[in-house]
Amino acid sequence: QVQLVESGGGLVQAGGSLRLSCAASGIIFSDNLMGWYRQVPGRQRELVAVISSGGSTNYADSVKGRFTISRDNAKNAVYLQMNSLKPEDTGAYYCNWRREWYPGATSNYWGKGTLVTVSS
Q: Are 18 and 9 in contact (CB under 8 A)?
């Protein structure tokens, strides 16, 4: 089992910045993927950014150039630096931990989410 706890959400004006943090605890295996997803009411949860244990990253097109994902493997933590925030970035941000043991067998854990509200 992996437990994920997010922090750092809040209310910010458009153009401002926030930094989200996620701490993982429990049985942590290497070669995992950690990331951030966003959800707004009435819509599916969508990928914001992910990062592998080796540091490879992938971003949603809407956040490229504004958001930066990073991780500290020693602390089992992942971070999301969000700059130049826009009202459309508003939503609940969820931390995710995933590991594929072999094709078709994946462990997938979610945090409870942290709310980000960007005012115009």
A: yes
pLDDT in tens, 58-106: 999 999 999 999 999 999 999 999 999 999 999 999 999 999 988 999 9
Tokens 């809040």 sit at which residue?
10
Residues forming a β-bridge with 109: 97
**Taking a C-beta distance cutoff of 8 angstroms, is the pair 23, 81 a contact?**
no
Written in H, E and C, the secondary structure of the chain is CEEEEEECCEEEECCCCEEEEEEEEECCCCCCEEEEEEECCCCCCEEEEEEECCCCEEECHHHCCCEEEEEECCCCEEEEEECCCCHHHCEEEEEEEEEEEECCEEEEEECCCEEEEEEC
Identity of the amino acid at 59: Y
